[in-house]
TrEMBL record:
<dbReference type="Pfam" id="PF00899">
    <property type="entry name" value="ThiF"/>
</dbReference>
<dbReference type="InterPro" id="IPR000594">
    <property type="entry name" value="ThiF_NAD_FAD-bd"/>
</dbReference>
<dbReference type="InterPro" id="IPR045886">
    <property type="entry name" value="ThiF/MoeB/HesA"/>
</dbReference>
<feature type="domain" description="THIF-type NAD/FAD binding fold">
    <location>
        <begin position="2"/>
        <end position="93"/>
    </location>
</feature>
<dbReference type="GO" id="GO:0031510">
    <property type="term" value="C:SUMO activating enzyme complex"/>
</dbReference>
<comment type="similarity">
    <text>Belongs to the ubiquitin-activating E1 family.</text>
</comment>
<dbReference type="GO" id="GO:0016925">
    <property type="term" value="P:protein sumoylation"/>
</dbReference>
<dbReference type="InterPro" id="IPR035985">
    <property type="entry name" value="Ubiquitin-activating_enz"/>
</dbReference>
<dbReference type="GO" id="GO:0019948">
    <property type="term" value="F:SUMO activating enzyme activity"/>
</dbReference>
<dbReference type="GO" id="GO:0005737">
    <property type="term" value="C:cytoplasm"/>
</dbReference>
<protein>
    <recommendedName>
        <fullName>THIF-type NAD/FAD binding fold domain-containing protein</fullName>
    </recommendedName>
</protein>
Length: 102
């Protein structure tokens, strides 16, 4: 739990699964969450991404999901990133490997 509280998390892809992961991580209480997506909301996204609305069609999925996800836990800063995921950018986030038996 201590490592989780100090983790800066990057979640790429704000379709159905990515949104669900982001929601759970934010509610779980990490240090920061950055959501990433370079795509725009399409009709098909409305069936699986419950934070998108018809008015959001054609807009970046990360940008329109950002304020709605940020409301979930005011103690977790949430930011949206729509640029390219470079190695330099990704290095600022923590990734931990699950270890069996711990």
């Amino acid at each position: 739990m201590k490592r989780m509280q100090n983790a800066n998390i990057l979640i790429s892809g704000m379709r159905g699964l990515g949104l669900e992961i982001a929601k759970n991580v934010i509610l779980g209480g990490v240090k920061t969450v950055t959501i990433h997506d370079q795509g725009v909301a399409e009709w098909v996204d409305l069936s699986s991404q419950f934070y998108l609305r018809e008015d959001d069609l054609g807009k970046n999925r990360a940008e329109v999901s950002h304020p709605r996800l940020a409301e979930l836990n005011t103690y977790v800063p949430v930011t949206a990133y729509t640029g390219e995921l470079t190695e330099e950018y990704v290095q600022q986030f923590q990734v931990t490997e699950p270890r069996l038996g711990q």
